[in-house]
Design brief:
The chain has three helices and six strands, in the order E-E-E-E-E-H-H-E-H. The chain is of the alpha+beta class. The strands form two sheets. The protein has a four-stranded antiparallel sheet. The chain has a two-stranded antiparallel ribbon with strand order 5-6.
């Protein structure tokens, strides 16, 4: 599902929500700026496990402002998830999912 957000603040915002089946189901709800190619907001949900649980909140807040480039996102996730236990997705699969949300806008 892709939709443009009609916002007075940023008419270039695009909202994409996609579901991905990895080991577990992961949903990425992404808002990004098409002009600057940066993440404005992100929500990651699903039936995966992440310990400590607060790490998901950290990802969602700290990845805002990051350019939608796979290597940058992967490095940021590696840094944010260092020492965390993941079950149901990997850092590679999550970074791929975020990039695929951006690519959904071009179809």
């Amino acid at each position: 599902m892709v939709s443009s957000i009609n916002s007075q603040n940023n008419p270039n915002s695009v909202s994409v929500k996609r579901y991905f089946k990895f080991e577990k189901m992961v949903c990425v709800d992404l808002v990004f700026d098409k002009t600057t190619n940066t993440i404005q907001s992100i929500k990651i949900t699903g039936d995966f496990f992440l310990h400590p649980e607060e790490a998901i909140d950290l990802i969602e807040s700290e990845i805002v402002g990051t350019k939608l480039e796979k290597d940058l996102i992967k490095k940021k996730l590696e840094s944010l998830l260092a020492g965390c236990e993941l079950y149901g997705f990997s850092i590679d699969s999550l970074s791929d999912a975020i990039i695929k949300c951006k690519e959904a806008d071009s179809h």
